[in-house]
Design a protein that fits this description.
Length: about 350
């Protein structure tokens, strides 16, 4: 069963109620107090709150023989409360202990809280975890976010989502550096991934990485036709967003073809807007090597706008304009072709023909 998790202000009443509830069903309790210097004071405090409890204390500064005795008493149920430090974080499997109280939970990391919480709920009984804070007003933003995340993510298999929350809270580290935390969101994950891919490719080719170099060109395609995955074709919103991201990440015609086949296999024949979407991505891959930053296709003309880094020689563009009366230049970086194309297929053919003439 998933572990019911509660974040609450420290209260003797809550501690007593939680422990008595566990005792009444014959269970045991972990009370985690991660300060060896004051753990004996906490022991006396718990004995005053719950005189009926059988409490043993365990921490890492005890001798091996003494700690072994404490753990044996607890696992054999001669004691029903283990007052301990994070020494129980790993390797403890006691199906009788199904309530955990973590004192000053704001001092722990998100992964550590998740790991500690996993020490209970190891049988068919419902388990409970109480995360106690002492001064909510003094909690910083990150501590509050950690406690909110661990409370929300209490279902089975929540570890991955907690790791994602931890990444958002602390920031991602440097993949190729020695810093373990950072702020990837300063540039955004997509741009960071593109910069990393470019840097790795340059290093593989034996080239020097220039962080200030402009990122790879992304061509803007406008066919003046609806280009989307309709809701009646792929009904799940999250699934559509995933597919849009996968389309944007396709870097070759083969990848697009494979995704096209997957769409047909999963959802059926593509409707017109979906075909326009895939054709737009195919034209993007076609325009990118030629340094075409923008493509605008209407029923009467095709407009190409070139980036400053285009590999096309200016002489080739001038020769095309001189040979074809339907072509003309509009400024130093824009080429216009007059051509009637009312359907999607006609517009795609018009663009392919023009790009082919520029490339050859």
């Amino acid at each position: 069963l998933s572990i019911k998790t509660f974040v609450t202000r420290y209260s003797e009443g809550i501690i007593r109620e939680a422990l008595l509830r566990e005792f009444k069903r014959g269970g045991q309790v972990y009370f985690l107090h991660n300060e060896v210097a004051s753990i004996e004071r906490m022991h006396e405090h718990l004995r005053r709150i719950l005189p009926e409890a059988r409490i043993v204390v365990g921490h890492g500064q005890m001798s091996e023989r003494e700690l072994e005795r404490v753990m044996r008493d607890f696992t054999q149920q001669r004691a029903n409360v283990l007052l301990c430090t994070t020494i129980i974080e790993t390797g403890i499997d006691n199906p009788h202990a199904n309530t955990m109280i973590i004192n000053r939970a704001e001092k722990f990391g998100l992964a550590q809280l998740h790991q500690l919480r996993g020490r209970v709920g190891r049988s068919h009984h419902q388990a409970y975890a109480y995360l106690l804070t002492h001064d909510e007003g003094a909690l910083n933003k990150q501590a509050r976010q950690r406690l909110e995340a661990i409370q929300m993510m209490d279902q089975l298999g929540a570890g991955f989502y907690l790791a994602m929350h931890d990444l958002e809270i602390r920031g991602a580290g440097e993949v190729l550096g020695d810093n373990q935390s950072g702020e990837m969101q300063e540039v955004g994950f997509t741009m960071f991934s593109e910069m990393l891919t470019r840097a790795v490719a340059a290093l593989k080719q034996g080239k020097e990485v220039d962080p200030a170099a402009p990122l790879a060109l992304t061509s803007e395609i406008n066919l003046h036709m609806p280009a989307l995955l309709p809701a009646d074709y792929a009904s799940d919103v999250n699934e559509r967003l995933t597919l849009y991201k996968r389309l944007a990440d396709c870097s070759s015609a083969d990848e697009l073809t494979a995704l096209h086949e997957e769409l047909v296999d999963r959802f059926g024949e593509l409707p017109e807007p979906a075909r326009a979407l895939l054709d737009g991505h195919r034209l993007r891959l076609l325009c990118k090597p030629l340094g075409i930053s923008k493509l605008d296709v209407t029923a009467g003309q095709v407009v190409l706008q070139f980036s400053p880094e285009t590999p096309i020689e200016p002489v080739r563009i001038i020769n095309l304009v001189q040979k074809d009366r339907n072509c003309r230049l509009a400024g130093p970086d824009k080429l216009i072709l007059k051509r009637q194309s009312t359907t999607l297929a006609e517009r795609v053919v018009a663009v392919r023909d023009l790009v082919k003439r520029l490339a050859n």
